[in-house]
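Supplementary Data S3. Sequence and structure tokens for construct A.
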Amino acid sequence: MKTEELTNNVLRALDEIRPFLNSDGGDITLISIDEGKHVKVRLEGACTSCSVNQMTLRAGVETTIKKYAPQIETVINVM
């Protein structure tokens, strides 16, 4: 998968998960995709102080990204 296609797929995944984050006062931004397999995102708004943000990152965000881009190995939240 080319870089542009990979980026578009990750952005589509974030667009799918964003309404759930928005409903709780949060949001998410794509920061980078490194080596075509490591995604860095920034959880924003209420998500930054939420006690379950790591569970949201793994169970929601990472799962959704991997659905659109199976070659992604890790999803990391950067502050």
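Construct B, processed identically:
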Amino acid sequence: MIRTVLTEIGIFLVPFAVYAIFLIATRSGVTLPASWPLDMIAKLTLVALVMVIVSFVLLAELTGAPPNSTYVPAHIENGKLVPGVEK
């Protein structure tokens, strides 16, 4: 679960990192408040949210068990732990 959350946070931060790299490349001053106007932050936030939503949709569609599968939980057989499986 933590990996999924950190992945989504990373995806959210990508547009801001790209913009910061752009500012470094153009020598515009990454730390100057004038380089981060409110309209640019709003655009970057919108792009970041769209990217996170798309990644959630892709995560839901492309991962997990196949449709109509049955989960058999982990159990003990003959004194040994048998891991859970999808059937």
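The mean pLDDT is 93. The beta strands are 71-72, 75-77, 80-82, 85-86.
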